[in-house]
Amino acid sequence: MSVAIRDAWIVTQNPNRDVLKGDLLIEDGLVREIGDVRSGADTDIDASGDIVLPGLINTHTHVAMAIMKGMADDLPFPDFLARTFSIDSKRTPKDIKCGAELGCLEMIRSGTTTFVDLYYSEDVIAGAVEASGLRGILSWTVLDQEFTTQSGKPMDNCRRFCESFRGRERILPAVGLQGVYVCSSGTFVEARDYALENRLLLHFHLSETRREVNDLKKREGMRPVEYLDKLKFLGKTGLAAHAAWLTLNEVRILGRNGTSISTCPVSNMKLATGGVAPIPEMVVAGVNVSVGTDGSATNNSLDMFGEIKTLGLLQKSSRWDPSILKAQQLLDFATIGGAKAVGLESSIGSIEIGKKADLVIMDGKSPNLNPLRRENVVSNVVYSSSCQNVKSVLCDGRLLMKGREVLTLAEGKVVDAAVDCVRDLMG
Ligand SMILES: [Zn+2]
């Protein structure tokens, strides 16, 4: 199957960060031509004046929590945790599927084509991801037995999931860890060994709250990154979510180990956990930075456009420096940075010949994106856009949404099912 996209502003995110005016030809899921495409295609999309971007990459979420939005708002953090854990413990495969489908719909509509998930029941979530046409790196959460609501040993559940979902086209199983507050050193080491042996991503929460850092300091005499470094847990296949409460020494340790981070500014701000991830210092230390929304119980949105703008504003405002992070860097974090974070930078994250056609087409005629000129395309995407500007989305060369109509999931049914599930869950 081939798709041609004609006469668009193409934000390539290639090594030169070229913004081109022209066409794209996609064949067999890959970008084959960029520029002037003369041949016809099975599907021809007139994108005159529109903007084409690489699909955005959300590197930290809990997609099945999409049905939990608005259920635990405006609470102090311990009360928030108590409330979400009590709802989580009652969840069934049916409502996890409903939540995952709802979250996938929201991601398609807001231009995300790849996401990293951290949850249990990833086998159920995988079904929803496959139906949606998105690409999911699904990390089964491992934690100590005494803290889990999973039946069976979490590491065994994780292994079983990874083994049975290996080799799928758009599902990449991964190993997840809840964090230092519920994982012993033995749990970290066992998860690391399994991930290394099987070349899987290791995705974990890190230093989200000051309390988590202080508790570990009391218990181990070290801060979380120092502790994980001592366990030899950190490495190139590691992806740490939040990383908000870090010292400069910890930033350097992450840089030395090649560990990526997923910053989640909206979630951190809404929960008021304090701590602003030291992104400028990470960039200097060579830490690969990517962006995540976190789950809908804390965000309460999966919109990556909103996330990168907020990230920029938070960093600028807290440093009293509007030049501290630039629009181009913010877009990099959500595209090529995300691709590196999951080890897929050779196939996704930019629009280049031979790469997978994960693409977002935005309405370039929309008032909020104009005036549009080559010089301000990236700036307008980062600071002026809205997820409502997303018209069409392709993942792996397949159209998931065309002209604002989602083609893979039955939108009305998914939304109705989510409402029914919440009624059952909340009573
Ligand atoms: Zn999280």
Count of alpha and pi helical runs? 15
What separation lies between the terminal Cα atoms?
Answer: 47 Å
The CATH superfamily of the largest domain is Metal-dependent hydrolases
- Strand content bin: 15-25%
Determine the CATH topology of the largest domain: TIM Barrel
Taking all Cα atoms into account, the compactness measure Rg is 21 Å
Main beta sheet strand tally, sense and closure: 9 strands, mixed
Q: How many beta-strand runs?
A: 17
How many domains in all?
2
Going by helix content, strand content and strand pairing, the class is alpha/beta
Q: Mean pLDDT score, rounded?
A: 96
What is the CATH class of the largest domain? Alpha Beta
Label the CATH architecture of the largest domain. Alpha-Beta Barrel
What features would you highlight for this structure?
427 residues; binds zinc ion; Urease, subunit C, domain 1; nine-stranded mixed β-sheet; 2 domains; single chain; eight-stranded parallel β-sheet; alpha/beta; TIM Barrel
In summary, what is this structure?
The chain is an alpha/beta fold and 427 residues long.
Describe the 3D structure.
By secondary structure, the protein is α/β, with parallel strands linked by helices. It folds into 2 domains: 2-55 and 355-406, Roll (Urease, subunit C, domain 1); 67-341, Alpha-Beta Barrel (TIM Barrel). Helix content is 37%, strand content 22%. It has helices spanning 77-88, 93-109, 122-132, 154-164, 185-197, 210-220, 224-230, 248-257, 265-271, 279-285, 304-319, 327-334, 336-341, 377-383, 411-426, and strands spanning 2-11, 19-27, 30-35, 43-46, 51-54, 56-61, 112-119, 135-142, 171-177, 202-206, 238-242, 260-263, 289-291, 359-362, 390-395, 398-402, 405-406. The strands form 2 sheets. Strands 1, 2, 3, 4, 5, 14, 15, 16 and 17 form a 9-stranded mixed β-sheet that branches. It is globular, with a radius of gyration of 21 Å. The model has no long low-confidence stretch (mean pLDDT 96). Residues 60, 62, 118, 205, 241, 294-295 line the site of zinc ion.
